[in-house]
Design a protein that fits this description.
Layout: E1 3-9, H1 15-25, E2 29-33, H2 41-48, E3 56-60, H3 62-73, E4 79-83, H4 86-95, E5 102-107, E6 115-118, E7 121-123, H5 125-136, E8 140-143, E9 152-153, H6 154-159
Parallel strand pairs: 1-4, 1-5, 2-3, 2-4, 5-8
Antiparallel strand pairs: 6-7, 8-9
Helix pairs in contact: 3-4, 4-5
């Protein structure tokens, strides 16, 4: 069970990921895929501060992620792959064809132009299309903020509104 979860969360590494998902899944590593963070030492250091010492963090670009994911797939310890936005996940799915079977939308927060779908998911029309595109690539897309919550299937996610 090398990569336990592929997650879209605009906060990237934070307590809900490290504790909320990390403990129940017994995560031993995080792969943070972000082109800007991958070249920023100070941002990497900030994210490392939120991770316990027994958990390894890898910072990578989308282009370099495909080979790293192949390496992680051979690691017997479970891990998580994090991206900050739907577009990055779309690029990752294209860079690693057939490797990503399911994606968890965990946090896409309010911003101008976004419509509330769940209390933790706000989407623009382009982001909604991005999720549909992931599904068209054969990826199961669900929204779930914490492991104890029910996974919300893509069709239900896109049909719901929070009035947000």
């Amino acid at each position: 069970m090398p990569i336990a979860l592929y997650r879209i969360d605009d906060r990237l590494i934070h307590g809900q990921v490290v504790v909320g998902w990390g403990q129940p899944l017994e995560l031993r590593f995080i792969v943070l895929v972000d082109d800007e963070v991958a070249v920023s030492e100070w941002e990497q250091e900030l994210y490392r501060m939120g991770v316990p010492p027994e958990m390894t963090v890898y910072f990578t670009t989308v282009d370099a992620a495909a080979s790293l994911l192949a390496t992680c797939a051979r690691d017997p310890a479970p891990g998580i792959v994090l991206v900050g936005d739907i577009g990055t996940m779309g690029r990752l799915v294209e860079a690693a064809p057939g490797r990503i079977a399911a994606v968890n939308v965990g946090g896409v927060h309010h911003a101008p132009g976004r419509t509330g779908r769940l209390r933790y998911v706000f989407l623009t029309p382009a982001e909604e299309q991005g999720l549909r595109d992931l599904a068209a690539h054969g990826v199961e897309v669900t929204a779930q903020d914490v492991p104890s919550a029910r996974p919300v299937p893509l069709a239900e996610l896109l049909a719901s509104t929070t009035g947000g």
